[in-house]
Amino acid sequence: MIKQISIYRVQKSSRKNKPDKVSFPLSSFLFPLMAVVLSGCMVGPDYEKPEVDTPAAWRYEVSEAADTVNTAWWRQFDDPVLDELVDEALQNNKDVRIAVARVEEFSARVDITRSGLFPQVGYTGGAERNQTSLETVGSLPAGISRTNDLYNAALNVGWELDLWGKIRRATEAARADLLASEESKRTVILSLVSAVASSYISLRTLDKQLVIATDTLATRKDTLRLFELKFKGGVVSNLEVAQVRSEYEQAAVRVPALERQLAILENALSVLLGRNPGTISRGKNIYDLTLPEVPEGIPSELLERRPDIRQAEQNLIAANAQIGVAKAQYFPSISLTGLFGYASVALSDLFSSTANLWELGGLALGPIFTGGQLTGQLRASEAVQRQVLTGYLQTVQNAFREVDDALVSIQKRREELDAQGRQVDALKEYEHLAQVNYDEGQVSFIEVLDAQRKLFDAELIYAQSQSDVYTSFVTMYKVMGGGWVLEAEEKTKQ
Q1: What top-level class would CATH report for the domain 51-121+163-331+372-491?
Q2: Rounded to two decimals, what is the model's pTM?
């Protein structure tokens, strides 16, 4: 507890009986005491990094893994437009700006908490005039005036001695909160870059699917027009025309659906970039993007690379320090107070050698009976620490799971893409043969329509499979963390 003593005020009706001159060597007393206090003990447990059951290796390994975890991985797609979008997002995204401001807030909180370790010095000054009521005192002695003046000026010092480490533990917690906020900002950056890259890949995928749907629609429109002419000439039946029209309308439905998805995705990506909703620039075709390399890393390295894990550990450090703060409440709070100043009934004599005054005091406050309050606070702090510890271990486990999931996704998505590509090739051959056989009169046009329908769906799925492969690499770099986050963080400061 810091106690600031208000100035000691002396009222006089005359200038007689002034105090004797007194000198007070305040610094000779305070500074040695500061050294003693700052070297004092701290109650509560010191932080020890918890042991983590780390897997020896990943469940799924990728043979072509490369040491690229610390590089700006999005540049591996070799699309300048994507690079520009990522830079724009890092500079203008609102979530990043909020995270930056939150870091500044916690930095200020450290300064606020740490200030309690030092003496608090202030000043007071005042002037007043008062008049005594004759109705209350009757009459005054001869020579005593009803009107009195008082002038004063002083410096006051208050200092709580941190003998038990309460303030130091609180400062330790505040620093950990600051570091946690910095890691939280890096988590935001990690998620932002991944979201921009994934959204751009999805955007280019929808563009390709829209091209496929538009081309298919144009082809089926020509076929429908031809069959309508054949029907008028009596060459084909009304049933065949209806079948061709149904396939045309199937393609027609896909076009506005894809256009709607494109508009929604462009708006979402615009917000990620810190823009108002609008169109997004395009770069390379989805099939022309370069496939990134698989980042390399062992499970134990994940503990140092992932900002969410580092944030969880800083939260644990803060919770551990709060136990010390709670324990310190059991011990007395000792404060020193001091004052040095001047007081006079005449302004001209305020700073004279005989007008000075000083005061030095100490105060000890401690609990005797609190009805279980302090015990409850300590128990609560310990329970919070256990919660945060469990949360930290859970964060680590989830990180291991996410990496293993990403590794298997890369492997299996590639296999799916290869199989889907072979299916597209097979369906192209199927459509060609069906058309040839129809022209030769060996099969009905239903066979051709069936081949076209299957090829159309397969091409759309193949484009999505290509997108899934790229996205699996984005996810891999996201869950692996790495030094690239620090490089991206620098762009937020521009």
Answers
A1: mainly alpha
A2: 0.84
